[in-house]
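Reposting from the mailing list since nobody answered there.

I have sequence plus structure tokens for a pair of proteins and want to know whether others read the tokens the same way I do. The first protein:
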Amino acid sequence: MNVPRNQTSPMGIAIRQRVRANVLLIGCGPHAKRIYLQALAASEWASLKAVVELESKRPQTMATIGKMFNGVEFVFTQQSGNRSDLPEELRHELALIVHRGQINSVIVATEPLSHMSYALWAQSCGLHVLIDKPISTYEDVATPPAQAAKLMADYELLSARRDPAKAFIVNTQRRYHPGFQYVFEEVTAVAREYGVPVTAMQSTHSDGQWRLPAEIVTQDYHPYNSGYGKVSHSGYHILDVMSNFIDRSFSASGKSFDEVGAFAAFITPEGLIHQQNRKDHLAIFGERYGQLNPLTDDELKLRYTGYGEVDASALITLFNSRTPVSNLTVNLLHNSFSRRNWLHPGKDLYKGNGRVKHEYHSIQQGPFQNIQIHSYQAHDKHDGEQPADHREIGGNNHFDVHVFRNAGVLGGEPLRTLSSGDFHFTPAGGGTGLMIEQVKHQVVHEFVSIVRGERAPDTSESDLATHRLSVQLMSLTYQAGATRRELRCAR
């Protein structure tokens, strides 16, 4: 049954008649292969029409797509890195493909240095956009503060050019996770009834990216050698979780803040040499390590000049009329517990190199409530059927929520504990048995539903308009880390 043409969203935007989502995928790296291709192949209402990838990835890209889809066009380009605009020749080629394939939507899954150029191009063509996080980043963003300030300028530019009739979704999948949604609702309910927002929050995310010293120089996937690192990688997800708790709780409580401050410190690859030097690596791997990496520690330190952050820690403070009203602490770690014990890196640097996720959030609402989220994996093998203990601590789908309540005021029990099995979740189809990856498929499912006209663009869980504070926190963290002093900006 078609949606009536006069149906509108909360912002008054008309919901269109249903159409098919004809998708242009820009970037076909490990994440796109694992998530976007699987989700599109499983969708009844989406068609992959074309793929854009670097010329250097031509053979593997064509082989991957050929196994899953028919009739897909390809564009291979030399372009990478920051550009304010796409080359005219590439724009012309993309325009022809959009016309031939009747393309109405684009998924931007390149490395983040290219996000802005493709997003602006897609907006100029009137296409629906689903973009990977972060919205943008820059080479050397972790060093000169001026580079980090560009992040907010990028956000403002995309917002100004936004067509309200088109989707612009940032893929931050925790917003779609039923466990996080439950905690969002619990925090919002207490804020609304008792007038107290989030008064303190601590978040930690680590993902066991053990990279050996010479690999840091040569690897370009989730790199450090371009002057950015963890904050621009998975770090944005955690800053986005924080911003959601802040925005929702302050709005519901009727309270406000007018300024955000941050102090941050980064551990760079040079710091790793002080933690584990050449002698230490030789003791672990033997002489094979010396053959693979002939560089001395001093030579590596010189190579590492200007590299991005491996680990980042930040204290973020919210102010009202220059009075601090809430403190938030965040620890973002690549150099953390890993299952890698081999010398040569795995072929899949996304999931196949010993990567293990540990995630923790503690949300305080004054004397009324503390909610803790715990998610700890012990294994790096996530494909195939999940083991029987996959929801237990250390399991691939471990996700526990502990709700501590002032029962004398709020009522109910003083402690309630839930696990991943307690949250209602309907898989969108495709992918592995990992709950977080099924949630990523939900993002694609929502995107397709907006393209088809089943719902209005501004009803997305992760609409561009809701990412202002997330980008602000990312920009401030980088600026503070570069200057090693507290920086503030207006709300």
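The second protein, same order (residues first, tokens after):
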Amino acid sequence: MKKYLIKSQHIFGLQDILRKSRPWFHREYYKHRVHPAIWDALELARPKDWHQLVLEHPYQSETDPTRLAYTQDDRAGDADRQTVTTIGKYLRRHFPDLSDHEIRDIQALHIVNGVKIVRTTAEMIYHLQRGPKSCMVSTSFEHHPYECYDPDFGWAMAVREEGNDTVGRALINDSDPDNKIYVRSYRKNGDGYSQTDDQIEAWLKSQGYTKASDWEGLKLKAIQHRRAYVAPYLDGNCKTADLKHYLGDEHFIITEDGAYDMSSTCGFAAESNRITCEDCGDSFDEDDGYWVGVSEEIHVCEHCCNDNYIFAYSRRGNQYHIPEHEVVGVDGDYYHTDYLSDNEIVCDIDGEYRRLEDCIFIEAELEYYPSDDERICYAEDTEMYELTENCWMCTESDKWYTDDCEDWVEIEGDRYHKDNAPEQTKEETNE
């Protein structure tokens, strides 16, 4: 907190100086508040250039509240012209010491909208059925497996809505007010698969929840169905539970090496000595199964492995069976989207995945372009790749130069670099 106060005082001091020396800054200062994402970033890192950050006076865009607007320089300020960009791109430029996940969390927190917590079983099942894809949507049992997440044991659900649609959800537990947790979140995706909902997770963190690796130690309602027990598929590392009896009440305690296996999507708790596919819930011979995922901690049958997973390059360049929806293909090979940088795979300006060696990074744009893209060129004056729209070509040498290069002449409508301009002779006439 002391470091944060010092940084705040630093900014306030610079603002006071700029307000007195620049009328346009005085206007912007009283017109807009500094974007709250900047204060969040200052709690984690120092900016690369204090003066430039304060001079730009970043604030929430009036045309798009999910983006950030700023004034590039004095010329733009005098003309009352602001630039709009994404929060993440702006933070990456001014706070190079922030990690990608820190920038992602800050951006997600400031674009989130429509998040709430529901605390009844009926509401949880309602949003489960209309939200991101889940293996627990339907059941043939009299009781839904989600009924085991009894609100009396602290279970609830954070949901994110857009209009009448549930687009994100996360099961939470706050039975211990000092240890409010969630294990994972789900976001509705266009292809039907569920991915992490960064906005919900950022919101939950702002509300005092922390991300846990499992639900170990928490209670589940014990619901009998014939000679078995109804049970949900447990997210996280701990997927077993013990049955407990207390004063005539029966409930489960989630614990490692428990007597009941809750890694099945079939809606019931199997005894732990049975091998159950964690995808389809069918039983199979242990020797016929596959360990899948980057940590190889999920045990699935051969059928599910062949249908739902791809052997792809992942962490540190190693290959694992990765869920199909987390894999992209590049030149006949497959790569895990969570570890693209480990395998030198990047996403270019057009959203296409390519090998790093086949791309050019344009520093001014903070974007990758295909190396043979006509939109980029090598500028002789900066000795860097630039956008062709910001450059010109010498008619004689076919070499490119940026618009800032002043070493050129125009001859008969064509532009030449001074080093390559044709010689001109002055025609003499006798009168």
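Reply #1 (J.P.):
I read it the same way you do. Residues 115-271 form one domain.
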